[in-house]
Each structure stands twice: as structure tokens, then as C-alpha cells.
Fold each of these.
Amino acid sequence: MFEYIKVSQENGVGTIILNRPEVFNALNDNICYELQRAFKTLSDDQETRVVVLTGEGKGFCSGQDIKAIKDMKGTPSEAIYRKYNPIIKLMRSMPKPVICKLNGIAAGAGCSLALACDIIIASEDAGLVEAFVNIGLVMDSGSSFFLPRIVGSLKAFELASMATKLSAAEALQLGMLNKVVPAAQLDEEVLKLTSYYVTAPTKAIGLIKDLLNRSYNSSLDEMLTEEARRQDVAGGTDDFREGIAAFLEKRKPVFKGK
């Protein structure tokens, strides 16, 4: 089904592994289309309650496959609309958390992929770089949206215009990562997160994600209204009823994501 990525689902955890380790998981047409299919499939799958995105080998994703650019037909924007933008939109609209398991360097569009995730757990030897300017291009795949909101406009301009490579420790200080751990502990740390999310109230988590997405471009009055609307939705779920029952019965709730 997939040639350039590995996709699996087990015990409520969907995993997508970029699988071009020989080129540090660089993005060509095929891997982009496969990512679109994978995110759509896991988003629609009712059994999947959290998704992990990572890379095979030493790198997370080195961005656009530069060797493939010479064969590119049409304008750059056509490729962006066709390949990259659908991936980012699927990740952000997915009503469940997407965890980036940052196992190595994330450059260019690879950096954008990481920043589009909801949580980023990085290995100590990982790194981030907005490398677009190195070949005379501007940021794409959402980096111009995510980066200034995370680090501020001044730092974002520096990182983007100078292609400054950040170590995991430096990125953590800037608020671009949630946590940095030794490489040997990366699997264990991500497992802690997935173990939480597969037992969390998935519908509420999806609504929280939607609210936070909307907050970027909404007024306080608009967000107060959106909160009320989504609270009605959350209040109609089985997980809400289970949460109330568990509280009254003084036990731990058993959420089923419904």
C-alpha cells in the first residue's frame, strides 16, 4: 500500500514513519502523496486516538528532495498546492493529537512538518533549520504561520533569513519543542505520551485542538462563542458522562474516545 512511508495502527496509536533514510527522508512527489493518504486514513479511523510522526534512520526529514526539483514541471506554487499544503491541512484539522518523534534533523519542509504537529519530543541529537533561503526560496508548508507564533517575529526573521541551524537544546529554549531526551530514551518518552492519549477523552482533545487553531485569528468574543458551542458538543459525548460518573463514584474514568 505504501512504498515511501511505513504506516501502522496498534492499540489506538497510529504511526507514520518517513522511509527514505538514504536521503534523510527527503520529500518527493510519491512520499507527499502517501503522507496525504496516511493522514486522511488515520484521521478517519475511529480506532486511532493518537498519531506519531517520525523518520527512519538518522534523520527526521531533510525537506524537499533537491535532486527532484530539476525534473519539476510547472511553477513552485503548483507543487505546494498539490503536495505540501494538503498534508499540513490534514495534520492541523485531524481531530486527534499528532506527536512528532523528532529523531534527527528537520530541515526546510521537514521543519514545517515538525512544527505542524501538536507536540514535539526530540532526541538530543535532533535539530531544526528553516533551510529554504539556502537555495533562494521562501518558507512554505506552514512555517511562515507556525514559526513567528512560537518564537516571535524578530527571531522568526533571523531563523528564516539566515537558515540558522538550531540544536535540540536551543530549539527547546525558544519554545519550539516540548521536551528533549537522550536518543536512547526517545521511544520511552513518546510511549508515555501515547499511553496517556489512548486513554484520554479523544473527542474533547479534538475539540481543544480545534479551539486552539481558531484562536490564532479570532477575537475574544468570537472565542467565547466558539468555546460555548464546542462545550455543547463535548457535553454530549459518552466520555463526558463517564467522567462525571467516575468523579461521583471516586474512581478513575475509563474514556473510550466516544
Amino acid sequence: MEGRQSKIIYVDIDGTICTISKPYSDAVPLHEHILKINNLFDEGHQIIYYTARGAVTKVDYTELTKKQLKDWGCKFHELKMNHKPNYDLYICDKSIRIEEL
């Protein structure tokens, strides 16, 4: 993405920058993936973490998630929670998996 115009990039958390774990507090950071996102941040892109944590249970995981992102060294501009839909598959022409970065 280097050399391109700055982009707004939404990044999922569970299964993207950390392991999928219940409870969320047991999630393990995937440092290689975090580094990829941090590099995008450093290139000038706007990074917004977007998660469905609590979407089904209605439990507010905002403080836990903020702490995890900070502890894991994640660089980002914004965290959006409590309104991402819960889904099994997302199909979009603008989507890529972290492994493709």
C-alpha cells in the first residue's frame, strides 16, 4: 500500500491481531499481524479497530479491549465497539485477510 493515497482501514481484532478466545481476556496477541497494522499506521493510513465483542451478549468489553490494544502495542486512531454486526462470513470487494498484507 506504500506510495498510495492515505486510506481509512478498518481492522477486526479477534482472529486478526489476536487469537480467538473466550473469555476475551485470554486472547493472545499475534505480534506479526500487529506489526503489519502498525506499519500501515506509520505509512499514514487511518487505522480503526472494529469489533463485534459483546454484540450478542450485550456485555461491554470496551475497557478490556482498550487495555489489550495498549498492552499489545497496537497503533490506531479509533476503536469502534458495540455496533458491529455479528456474522459468520463477510463478502466485500474491498476485503483482504491479514495474511495478504
Amino acid sequence: MSTVLTMATTSSPPEGDTPPMARSEEPASPDAHAVSRLAVVAAWTFVIILPLIGLVSLLLRSTLDPEWTSPRLHVVLFLGVGGGAFVLAYIAGQAADRRGDARVFLLSLAFLVTGGFLAVHALGTPDVLVNHDLPGFKVAIPVGLLIAALFACASAFVDVRPGFAHAVVRHRHGLRWSVVVAMAVWVILTFLELPPVSASTTEGAGAALRTFAALGAAIYAVAALRYVAVFRARTTLLPASVIACLVLLAQAMVGSALLGERTWHASWWEWHGLIVTAYVVILYAARRQWRDERFRQLYLASTRERSEEVSVLFADLVEFTTFAEQNDPAEVASMLSTYYSVATPLIARRFGGEVEKFIGDAIMATFNGRGDQPDHAVRAARAGLELQRQIDALANAHPGWPRLRVGVNTGVAQVREMGGPGFLTYAIVGDTINVGSRLEGRAPVGGVLVGAETYRRLPPEAEVEPRLGLEVKGKRTPVDAYVLRSMSS
């Protein structure tokens, strides 16, 4: 297991191996550098002047406001933009779930809300899919943009109190489902024409909507200023696009309500266009990022490096080298594939762990790497027991297949971003990880050996066999451990 320990703590490619993206990169010519610089300057110019163009065009609408009625274009346009916002919500949500980043998660909720209400607004276009005006559909954009503004502003200030970011990550699934349910309720109330949705008037009319618009515009402006302050020293394309998006959405709220509107006139299309442009900017910037980490530039500092209490599970096949020597390579590969196909979903789906890596015949998995599993020690211990049960069944069905040793340990570790474009990992390192690896090496064949801190967190009915004062490699002082026999389900 010394190899396992080395790879688990360094999280770097094997010596002499070049990351796939790095292999394909060729030295850029001076002309290519010039073109690249020109593209960057053009992109920055576009992002900076776009909000100003939108503001000027809105102010001039009183002198140039022709009518153009096109319900079908309205449906297609907003369904398309709503779909784009959903795509952004999905990829940002995936990144937030994978890395446990509260800022990107809150932005994903803002994208989700905007996309949902844009789609609702589009579906409610009269004379296309419905025969008459439904107030809930018509006011969907101001309401949706206001709710999205709250999430966007929360993302801008989420780093002020670390406890808030931790709570957001811990409750992210509930928050996401709350947003989905709220949008579904809005659609149902709209179709049934029930209050309070049935009392809504047309977009931009009514004191309530004007108040919502003013509040939303102010919230977007505050969020944009906060993003400027946070990223002023490293304002790359993606943060700049977020700032531009927030400014454009603030202007859209001004255009939809505070400045009044005339349906199907140029001013009406104008503020719709601001919303479209806001999300086109974000989609373009996200598309330009490294695919595996599109939102990395927005991650909180605590995402890139933080201390976290975790439980780590190491599992290793006993006498695998002998098995590999005595069997055909195809048989060895088939055994490993079967082993991993059982272990991976068991750890990840059933018990919520994170499979960090496969290392030959070994697996390293962590629990609570994102700080959202207060019962991580119990999860890891139960995963170890169930893993042993299922691998034991496989070994019984295939005589000669190796059996498993499992070690579980709990404690504080450091989660840290390592690498760069082409190879990036968020490694979990520290003495907790090292001891977990050593416990696996001292575990009995077919058994689960847990550290003292893991044992302390198990339910009272857990059946264990003490192994106190174990000497483990690399530790000056002995460690207490316990062979876990059973736990209540």
C-alpha cells in the first residue's frame, strides 16, 4: 500500500506522463499570439460597452418606438434563451456539486429561476399556445428576475460569512428542489387563474410590479458592484461576463417596469433583448472556459483550499499480485472490472461517498469532502461492511478470486486544488488519510478496521473487536483501532 499512499497524497500524474490536453498543445506563433490578444481586447470592449449601449437605446425609445408584432418569434426567442439558462444552471450546478462551491451553486439557482420564468413567459404568449392573456404568464419575467436577483446577490456576498457558504452547500439539494417546486406552483396557479397570481396585471403596470422592478434593479446593481470588488485583481472573461450579465438584467428590470412599456413596440423588444444578451454573454464566456472546470474562475477561496473533517475508506485486494501472475491478463481485467462495477455505485450512490481514485487493485474514497454529511463516519463504516459482504459473495462465486481488506479513518484533512489546465484535482491530504491507508494494511482479510475517531461516532450497538496500540508504518506512536463486525442498518 505504499504506492497507494504516495498517489493519494500527491495527486499528480505519474512521472514522465503528460496530461492529455498538454500533449496536444503546440507552441504558438507570434501571429497566433497577436490574434489571441486582439480577440481578448475585442471581447473586453464588447463586455464593457454593451451595458452602455443598452442603456442609451432604452433612453431613446421615446423618439423611436415603432410597433412590430411577432408572437411566434417571441415564443421561439424566449424558449431558446430559457433553454440556454437551463443549460447554464445544469453545468454550474454540476460544478458546484462536484467541488462544493456555494458561489457557483447560488449562481446556478439564479440561472434556473430565470430560465424557468422565461420559459413560462414564452409559453403564455397569446394566440400561439394559449387563446387569451394569463396574468401569471405575463408577469413571469419581473417576478422571476427579482427572485434570481436575490440568488445572484447572495452569490456575491456568500464569502462574507464562511458559515453561510457551508450551510448553502449542506442544504443545496433542498434549495434546488424548493426552486423547482415554486416554479411548478406558479404555473399551476396561473393555469387555474387562482390568487394571488390571478390578481397580477400586465408587465410594468401596477405599483407592486414597479416596486418589484425597482428592488430587483437595485439588487442586481449591488451584486454587480460586489463582483467588481471581489474580482478587481483578477477580472478574467468569466467574472467580467457575470458582471455584465447583472448590469444588463438590472437594465431589463428598469425597462420592463420603471420606464413603462408598450407591448410589441421597439421599447418592449428592447428590454427583452437585454435579457437575451445577458445570457448570451454568459454562455459565450462559459463556452470559452476549460470544459472540465468551466466555473473555476468563480470558485471561492475556501473551495480551492480548506480544512474539512472527513472519513476516508481504503479498500485493497489481498494477494492480487499472485492472482495476476497465475491468471491470463484478460481474466485479471475481467475480475477488476467486476470488482469496480460493484464497489463504485455502492460507495457513491448508496452511501454518498466520493471515489477519489482507483490505484491498481485499490480504491480510495472519501465522505464529507464537501462538508454536507454530518454522519460521514457512519456512512464510511457501513460502506466498508457492505463492500466486504458483496465482494465476499463475488469471491465465493468465483473460486480463486482475491478477497478484500478495508480500512476506515476519520479526522481533519486538507482539501486543496492542485494542478492547472490539462490536469487539475482537488486532493484530500493529511495524517487522517495516511492513517486510513495504514489501517487498511493492518485489516484482516474480509474485515473492516476502523480508527478510534470513527469508532467513537458509531452507534452503541456496533459490534467491534478492539485492536489497541497498533504499530503502523510512519507513526511514532501506536494507534487504537477496532475490527468492525456489524452495525444496525
Amino acid sequence: MGHAVVVLAVDGVEPFDLASACEVFSSGPVADHYSLRVVSSDGRPVRTSHGYPIDPAGRAAPPGTGGTVIVPGFSGEIDGRGLALLRQAHRDGARVASICTGAFALAAAGLLDGRPATTHWLFSDKLAASFPQVHVQPDVLFVDDGDILTSAGTAAGIDLCLHMVRADLGAAVANEVARRMVVAPHRDGGQAQYVKHPVPPIGGRLEETRTWALEHLAEPIEVSSMAQHANLSPRHFSRLFTAETGTTPHRWLTSQRVLHARHLLEATSDSVEQVTAASGFRTAAALRVHFRRALRTSPVAYRRSFGGASRADVDTRWRAAP
């Protein structure tokens, strides 16, 4: 029995959110690591937001310590049994996550009190007004607050699920899942949900500069260097970069360096100092700061969990070693 993942379908469930969670946690590369169940609070069929019913596997039950409960977005109401499941799962030490308006269920259960959280930007004002004790962050793709995670809608739900797989099994496995789903392997949670101008579906004017930056991560690249490569002023470059990617050049560059460091820690035996230099961080201390900020663990602990492990013997615990 692998890591238990319980997807709680609430009346009015959004089928895309539900399917996204199921696809990520049952895809080929992770099939042996997760035990997935789709449930309802009483075991009966639930109506989707589009009107047709789905028949879950059974009645909701907490996954136990080390498991995960995911609430996809929904347009109905969650009943007392569903709220009790969420509270019990959290008390038992499970990881609890929501996609889109699933955050309203977590808030109603009291799990978001005093915590940062997000939901689809269309509903962020409603979440803040309905639950003033929740620190709503309306402009991000997802929020990882340790044992409680929330995401915006649709594609951001996939980002959150891949983020959890990455935390559980490492970047290489998460990237393999993403390839099978033909989606971006990593979008940082701090990226904007909504940008004023549509993000180009392929490339964009600054694609060549981003590619150049990725090929020169070990060098002391700054935002000014990227602007110079694009033959733009730093201010114009930053505005265009944010419009194309939904995040700032500095945040994107730091995220890419952390991702590269993760890859090196997983796939090579390079020392932390060598990984630091190859990833473009000036000091090992800087690498540790950004690594812990992004992953809540250290480079050494990350390598201990994921370095050189095959998919057959990867530790399936969701929380990285301290």
C-alpha cells in the first residue's frame, strides 16, 4: 500500500479539477507510490458542476498519518461529514490540499484560520469576506503552508499536484509525470494567476533570452544582463518579461537556479559547493537560503531523500527530511 491519496468529491465538483488530481497521482511514473481513492462524504454519487453525476469509490475516510486529502473545486456545499473528514485528517497528520474553490471547504473546516491561502482570483474576494481570519493571497498560483496547501483554479491545480509529487518523490519523477501529461514541468507558486496581457502559448519575444539564461546559469547573470541580451532597457525588459511569464525576471531566475540545483543533487555526486557554482549561486549559504525558502529543507537533506534513488526505492513520505 503506497501513500494514500483521498480525493473528496463535494456536490457540484469541478470535473477538470477532479480529473487533474487523479491523473497526476495515478500516472505511470507514480502508480506504485500512491494509492488513490475518489470518495464522497456519504459514499453516494455526487453531481458535477456540469450537471452529470459521478459515482465515487466509496464513503470518505481519513487517509491516516502521512496521507493526503485533496478537495477539488466545487459549486455546491460541503456537509458536516465532509468537514469532519478534513478536520480528522489534519489531526491525524495528513497533508490537506485544495484546488480552486476547494479552499472554501478547508476554510469552513477551520483549517485555514491564521494561514495564507489562495483560490481562483474570481473568488478570492468572496473567500476573504466569508472567512476574514484567512490570509488570502489572490495573485499566486498556489500556496504551500506545509501541511495545508491551496491553489488557484484549473491549470494551477495541476501545478499544485505536481508540486506535491516533487516534494514526495523528487523533481525527476515530477517532470516525468508532467511529460506524460504534456504540461509544463514546473511553474513557481508565486507566479501571478492573472496577467493583463495573454501569455504567448509558445515562445514569446523573450524566449531566446530565457534560453540563453538557462544555458549560462553558472555565470553571474543579473536582470540587467538579461535585458542587455534582449537589447531592451531593464525597465522595459522587466515589464515584458512579467507579461510573458507571469513572474518577475529575478524570481524566475532564482527559481530556475533552485531547479537546476535540485537536478544536480538528484543526478550527480557533485559536492554542495560544486552544485552552488553550477547553479549560479554566489555562496553555499545563498543556495541553502533559497533552497529552504522554496522546499523547507536543506540541499544535504534533499540529496539524502532523492539523490541517486530509483523510482522503485524512493521514499514515499510526503515531508522531506528536516
